[in-house]
Predict the 3D structure of the following.
Amino acid sequence: MKKILFLSLSLVLITASVSAQGPRDRVNRDRVVQGHRSGALTRGETHHLVRQQQHINRTERMARRDGHITPYERHKIRKMKKHHSREVYRFKHNRRHR
């Protein structure tokens, strides 16, 4: 019961933080939510992907904190987002189901 409540709460938090995200982030979030609902993602995989997206969001906030995102920070964030996208695909197609 606690796990279901935690996953539901984390999905709500991700949904609430969408306003500051770009289209790529929204698409990945929707892919995670759809995968969780359909059973293609296990609870552990969903939790991992949610935490990973939170880490990316935190990194972006820290990069914007000084008012300028350096080329290195931009590269690092893009690399993290690309890795996250690949993990969503990999987890959804690994033949593990809820």
Summary: The mean pLDDT is 86.
